[in-house]
Amino acid sequence: MPNALPLCALSPLWLRQLGLGLGLTCLLLANAQAQASKLQLRLMQTSDLHMNLLNYDYYQDKPTEEYGLAKTISLIQQARGQVSNSLLFDNGDLLQGNPLGDLVARIKPLAPGQTHPAYKVLNLLQVDAANIGNHEFNYGLPFLRQALSGAGFPYVNANVILADAGGNNTDLHAFTPYVMLERQFKDQAGKTQRLKIGVIGFVPPQIMQWDRPLLEGKVRALDMVETAQRLVPRMRREGADLVIAIAHSGFEKTAQGRLAENTVAELARVPGIDALLFGHAHAEFPGPQFADYPGVDAQRGRIYGVPAVMPGRWGDHLGIIDLQLQRAEKSRRWTVSHSQAQLRPIFDRQARRALVEADPLVAHVIAHEHADTLAHVRSQIGLTPTPIHSYFAQVLDEPSVRIVARAQLAYLERAVQGTAFEGLPLLAAAAPFKAGGRQGWTNYTDIPAGPLAIKHVADLYVYPNTIKVLKLKGSQIKEWLEMSAGQFRHIDSQGPKAQDLLAPEFRSYNFDSLRGRDSYRLNGQEVQAPELSYEIDVSVPARYDADGRRSESMASRIKNLRFRGKPIDAHAEFLVATNNYRATGGGNFPGLSASQIVIDSPDENRQALASYLAQMSGQAEPAPQAPWRVLPVPGVSLRFESGAGAQKYLPDWPHIRLLEARGDGSVMLELQPR
User: Are 283 and 409 found together in one domain?
Assistant: First the structure.
């Protein structure tokens, strides 16, 4: 039988005999073909869950409505039920972040063949693929590989290679660089279409700084953008109909250089990427904070034309990108003809109410691990006669930071005994980890007077960092503090009568304060004053920006920097106890690097803190000797935001005044002169 002719190829005479008009017939057929070549696909993303599988706050030891994958699952189920075609991805920073993560990594480590609780849950969610985040490396490569072995879905990372990959051999990937997901979808005409979805993952190269002791000599990290430029074309040649980049990386407003941490804007301009799922920064895209960024379509959720989404942190949002794909009849290639990105929250921050119920699946699946975690965090280690909180830790010397510094200092005093370093001046650096902001207005340390448990140690020090000791000169101490002082905005003494004090782009965990002992001996007499003291003048521009770049300003914010009552000697040597993150370059502090480490301790900062709290059990902490203060700016009200929980402590803090209690869980406060 001869091949049948297409209907539009028949002569008008035949068509008239069939009762059809040529133009109408061909138009109908063309429309039918076009409909058969269109397909709707929904991409869903979670990111930065940090082991918040349940909607449970282990630090406060109570359920929460504001975060938790158990809540996000309800949104996932709703979103899946609304469409015919969907894919679900996770973007890393999954395995570390709360006591549950610590339990299975350190306290009761996974047994061989045991499935990590995160994958007990995610396997049931039928995740299609996942990316590795920077915090996945916090417990070391052996644990990471053991944990990933329990995932019932592929993991990708393209820019981490084996350390013995010599020369330009970038194909010795430490993990699977990308995968091709072969899926069957229904198009708009109901026809089955087979698509090959390429998924590639990236992580910040800074893992080599942040987890240097665990990774050095084992792996190397490459630039994310260069890796994408090399591999995305390869994925296309291998038949990818669609390329999805999952980048554990944030979005910066200005151009980023090679080996940068936050390269989403640059990745969006790599040819061949059809959708960009990103995270790491715990922010929300599309959202108002990015509306004026170059290349952003805030309405449709695009960055330089590429559909993109970033779903906050801890499961507080589900990220969704809806793609309309169209296949060209000649090339048979699928292209994105339309897209819309959106975020779906689990909690209404303004109304302070839950938007979805928690799915009971999680509580059932990880009941054993949850019970073990509760038993561990409730273990008592001591007593505190006074509350410990962090509501004012960004503007005053506050107990939550002071206690950590004192614990590190006590550790350092023991560590130098009998060594060549004994006799050198000792200092400790600490920063507020829980200070609201992008983490929400309930994210503060708030420990009442009474029993101290393991959960309180984890609350005060949320990361599994290890203690490192640097040997620095007095001039380097000053630059360290100048960098920290970038947390504050430049206050114009001739400007408005009320000005916001804190710079939102500056991360609170980079606001290091340094302190020595709270008293010292001088000429045989005990002096009741801080060994190290300084003032911060916010009426002059910051010397460094949030990324550690030197500004044009030659001014100094750090005033009256003194050690034992005298101006600090720029050439004098000091030992400073800090953590592995800061000691190896984390935060881009000027002049700080791993080459200055003189005590490379394997002990965790939390261990030092637990020992200190146990030793101080029931005793009043030494009288606070504030080593630093923010200088007042005459005629200007210095204002800052904090959580509403701060109000109960205001009577004890005469230098803080309440200006406004808001309905969203925050308060506006004023720093009073002192």
Answer: no
Q: What is the CATH number of the domain that holds 442?
A: 3.90.780.10
On the CB side of 265, CA atoms within 13 Å amount to 17
Specify if 76 maps to a domain: yes
Strand, helix or coil for residue 237: helix
Pairing of strands 317-327, 155-156: unpaired
User: Is 196 found in the same domain as 116?
Assistant: yes
Whether a cis peptide bond, with omega within 30° of 0, leads into 399 is no
Tell me the pTM. Answer: 0.80
Q: In sequence order, what are the residues at sequence separation of 6 or more whose Cβ sits closer than 8 angstroms to the Cβ of residue 418?
A: none
* Residue 539, in any domain of the structure: yes
Are 459 and 315 in the same domain? no
Structure tokens at 639: 């204002």
Claim to verify: residue 419 and residue 457 sit in the same structural domain: yes
448/430 Cα distance (integer angstroms): 21
9 DSSP 8-state letter: G
For the cut 60, the answer to whether the pLDDT of residue 360 exceeds it is yes
**435 and 562 housed in the same domain:** yes
pLDDT of residue 320 exceeding 50: yes
| Predicted confidence band of residue 328 (pLDDT cuts 50, 70, 90) | confident
Using CB atoms within 10 A of its CB, is residue 278 exposed (0-12), middle (13-18) or buried (19+)?
A: buried
Residue-wise pLDDT tens digits, 60-106 = 899 999 999 999 999 999 999 999 999 999 999 999 989 999 999 99
Strand partners, 220: 161
- DSSP labels, 68-107: -HHHHHHHHHHHHHT-S-EEEEE-S--S-SSHHHHIIIII
